Amino acid sequence: MTEVSSLTGRLLVATPALADPNFDRAVVLLLDHDEEGSLGVILNRPTPVGVADILAPWAELAGEPGVVFQGGPVSLDSALGVAVVPGGGPSGEGAPSPGSGTRTGGADGGTAGAPVTDTADGAGPGDEPLGWRRVHGAIGLVDLEAPPELLAAVLGSLRIFAGYAGWGPGQLEDELVEGAWYVVESEPGDVSSPDPEQLWRAVLRRQRNELAMVATYPDDPSLN
User: Quick check: is 2 in a domain?
Assistant: First the structure.
């Protein structure tokens, strides 16, 4: 198999040509990408459901809007927490090692997160805070079964997702070849955008190339 260059931590921004309604104008944060497949969450699909309605202990830590986001069409009955810990990178930045458990977060149909191994000094692996596992830079996965007070003092932002977006081996690469996605760098603020409905245009607008022009693309392609 051809070696896959990991895109973990990058954003997939749906092109206007992407016809799948599940991903129309979607901005996907890739949490895991290797030769075994890909997993991410859609950052701009807020739902009417409040975090307090399903995960009350975490509600105070969830940023505005304090609602659950639909992370994708897979395992909608599972929950994933994605959080930014200021100063969390660049040490250890990049993709988790194979088998590190990132892909299992949210795949088991329950309240899921990123399991973290306790250490004697009260920190997780690599001196990461307990209950948080780095994905890329300052962005990481939260163990939603851990006590929220473990992270309350260090979290910069938290977002809760129901479900996720998943691709099998080679599937995302095929979609990239077909022109379904733009791949761009993520910023920690993307996870906690206070205006998620405008995130698609905002991410494109900040690009220093022709993608900035795509941000002006009309919602109805027939009007272009």
Answer: no
Expressed in angstroms, the distance from the first to the final Cα of the chain is 40
26 found inside a domain: yes
Looking up residue 19, the CATH number of its domain turns out to be: 3.40.1740.10
Residue 132, SS3 per DSSP: strand
* Residues in contact with 177: Cβ distance below 8 Å, sequence separation at least 6, in sequence order: none
pTM for the model: 0.81
Encode pLDDT of 104-140 as tens digits.
333 333 333 333 333 333 444 457 899 999 999 999 9
Nearest C-alpha neighbor of 161 from the set 81, 99, 104: 81
In one letter, which amino acid is 68? V
- Residue 214's CB is within 10 A of a number of other CB atoms, namely 17
Length of the chain: 224
